[in-house]
Amino acid sequence: MASPSQPEIAIPEMFIRPELEPTAIQSDHEAAAIPIFDLKTLLCAGNDNTTQLHELYDTCKEWGIFQVRNHGVSPQVLENLQVEMEKFFNLSKEEKSKYQVEEGDFQGYGNVKRSKDEKVDWGERFFMVINPLERRKADLFEKLPLLLRETLETYFAELRKIGMGLLRILGEGVGMEIEEVDHIFDNGMQTTRMTYYPPCPNPELVLGLTPHSDSTGITILHQVNAIEGLQIKKHGLWLPVSFHPNAFLVLVGDIFQIVSNGVYNSMEHRVVVNKEKGRLSIAMFMNPKYEAEIGPAKSLISEENPPLFRRMVMEDFVKDYFSRKLNGKAHLDNMRIKTTSPDDH
Ligand SMILES: O=C(O)CCC(=O)C(=O)O
C-alpha cells in the first residue's frame, strides 16, 4: 500500500476525495471558539460551581465539544508523550509493520478499510483497546517501545480519572445519579488512537480523518504538537477548531447522546491536513463496560420522555460499529427508534 509518508509522489487515487465539502471561509465564519472550562472548578464538590456546570451542560447540548484546562496532567508527562509518539511514528516502515493491524482485526498500526469503496485517510494510526486489562491485546501492547509504553500508562491513568469525573458530572447534568453513571462506565471499555497526519502536497484533495461522530461516551483529545486541523460541522458548515494549547478537547460521543436520551449532542468532526506541518494527536475513548446495556438511562425515561434510541449490549454495539464504514452520524441514526405517524398506515 502506498504510504502517506511519501508525499513527493503524485497522490494515489485511494486518498483523493472528489466530493470534499469545503471549509467555511473565515470571512463568513470565525474559527469555532470552543468553550473552555477549568476542570478543578468543575469537579470540586461543594465549591460554588453551579454557574460553570450549567454553562457546561448548555455547551454539551448545543455543541457537544468543550475544552478543559487546569486538568492536572503534568507538562512533563505531556512532553514525554510527544517525544515518544514522535519516535514511534519516525520508526522505519519495517519497524512499524510489526504492529500492523491483522486481517479481520481493528487493533494495531495502519488504516482499516471497512468497505471496498472507502477512501483512505491521510494519516498513520495506532489503535488499541486499553481497558479492561483482560481485553488488551497483550502481545501488541508489550511489543511497543518500553518508554512509549510507560508514558502511555501514566497518561492513561491520569485521563481515566479525568474521564470518570467528567462522565459523572455530565450524567448529573441530565438528572442521573452517580451510581447509575458508574454502573455503566466504571472500569469501562477504553480505547486509544494515536495519529500522525503527515504534510500533504495537495491538502485540498484529501482528508486526515473521515467525517464522523465518535461512537463513545466521551472522547478526550490531546493535540500533541499543537498543530490545528480538527474541524467540526455546525449548522451544515465545516469550521476549523481553534484550541488553547494547554487544554484537552472533550467530545460528547454518540453513546452519551443515547444515554441522555438526546439531551446532549455528539459533534460531527473531521481532520484536514496541511502542506508544511505534520500533526500529532492522541484520543482516549471512554465507553461503557462491554456487558453494559446501552440505551437511554432508565431513570430518565417516562411517559412524557419516551426513549428515542434502541437498547443494545455494548459488545454488540462495538461489533456493529466496526462492521460499518464511517459516515457522519449514520451509526447513531441507526440506533434511533423510528416513530410511525398515523398517516403511515
Ligand atoms: O486528530 C484529531 O484531531 C481527531 C482524532 C479523532 O477524532 C479520532 O481519532 O477519532
From TrEMBL:
Residues 185-288 form the Fe2OG dioxygenase domain. InterPro entries: DIOX_N (IPR026992), IPNS-like_FE2OG_OXY (IPR044861), IPNS-like_sf (IPR027443), Oxoglu/Fe-dep_dioxygenase_dom (IPR005123), Plant_2OG-oxidoreductases (IPR050295). Belongs to the iron/ascorbate-dependent oxidoreductase family. PANTHER family: OXOGLUTARATE/IRON-DEPENDENT DIOXYGENASE. PROSITE patterns: FE2OG_OXY (PS51471). Gene3D superfamilies: B-lactam Antibiotic, Isopenicillin N Synthase, Chain (2.60.120.330). It comes from the Eukaryota. SUPFAM superfamilies: Clavaminate synthase-like. One of its GO terms (molecular function) is L-ascorbic acid binding. This is Fe2OG dioxygenase domain-containing protein. The keyword Mitochondrion does not apply. Keywords: Iron, Metal-binding, Oxidoreductase, Vitamin C.
